[in-house]
Specification:
The protein is mainly α. It contains five helices and no strands. The chain is elongated, with a radius of gyration of 14 Å.
Length: 122
């Protein structure tokens, strides 16, 4: 079972550096490289950050989708991305680099994905 379609979309956006709602910026340095390197403490922080990012998404997604002016839409997307970065930065125990790295890793590492899904379901 994969995390969720919404998280997958965010991960794809992260992987390809797409500027879109739910797309945290691609960062140059990744500090998490294997699921066994993600501690329970890091995963707890990741889940808190994920919840915060989802709250930001909820705030912006309808506004972005409803915006018909391309420049205004791009501005809202940039604002949403900044807010998501801020949400992760405000979460204790995780950096934006680690958040992005864990999100990327969860797409290919079944063990990490299962740990995240268990926390989402639990």
């Amino acid at each position: 079972m994969l995390i969720s379609k919404r998280l997958q979309a965010m991960s794809v956006a992260i992987l390809f550096g797409v500027t879109a709602p739910l797309a945290l910026p691609v960062t140059a340095q990744e500090t998490v490289t294997a699921s066994d390197s993600v501690s329970d403490t890091q995963l707890d922080a990741f889940m808190q950050a994920l919840n915060a990012v989802n709250e930001v998404e909820t705030t912006y997604v309808e506004r972005v989708e409803a915006e018909t002016d391309a420049e205004a839409r791009d501005a809202l997307i940039a604002e949403a991305n900044e807010a998501m970065v801020g949400a992760v930065e405000e979460t204790d125990g995780i950096t934006v680099d680690d958040y992005v790295a864990i999100m990327r890793l969860a797409q290919t590492d079944e063990a990490l994905n299962a740990r995240i899904v268990a926390r989402l379901d639990g």
